[in-house]
Amino acid sequence: MMKFKKAGIIMEVINIKRFGMACGVTFALLYLGCVLVMWTVGKEASILFFNSLMHGIDVTSIIRTHMPWWEMVMGVVEIFILGWLTGATIASIYNFGLGRQKR
């Protein structure tokens, strides 16, 4: 890992691929957690749970409890990709902010 000294503080460069992977896996686990909640507690409890997370937004009209397995798998893949891209973007912006120093 490369280190830069900026304003007396040693800052390390973030590995873009590894940070993207960490974010992608985290997002996918959160998605699977939502799937688990909806699968185990039923529609009414899911609505109550997600309404409390959404700060008063009523999700009753958009919640689906019956979803094909392949649609859930596609959701996990899509959210992983979005998480990876988010993590890679954050790491890139952070690294760019360190500036390029010549060796």
Structure description:
With 103 residues, the protein is mainly alpha-helical. It has one domain. Helices cover 65% and strands 8% of the residues. It has three helices and two strands. Strands 1-2 form a two-stranded antiparallel ribbon. Helix 1 packs antiparallel against helix 3. The longest helix is centred in the last third of the chain and has 30 residues. The radius of gyration is 19 Å and the shape is elongated. The two termini are 15 Å apart. The model has no long low-confidence stretch (mean pLDDT 87).
Characteristic terms for this protein:
103 residues, mainly alpha, two-stranded antiparallel sheet, 3 helices, elongated
Question: How many E strands?
Answer: 2
What are the secondary-structure elements, in order, as H or E? EEHHH
Number of domains: 1
* Helix proportion range: 55-70%
Q: What is the C-alpha radius of gyration, as a whole number of Å? A: 19 Å
Averaged pLDDT, please?
Answer: 87
Give, in spatial order, the strands making up the sheet with the most strands.
Answer: 1-2
Strand content: 5-15%
Described by strand count, sense and barrel closure, the largest sheet is: 2 strands, antiparallel
What is the straight-line distance between the termini? 15 Å
Class from helix and strand fractions:
mainly alpha
The shape, in one word, is elongated
Number of DSSP helical runs: 3
Topology:
Blueprint: E1 3-6, E2 9-12, H1 16-41, H2 43-53, H3 69-98
Helix pairs in contact: 1-3
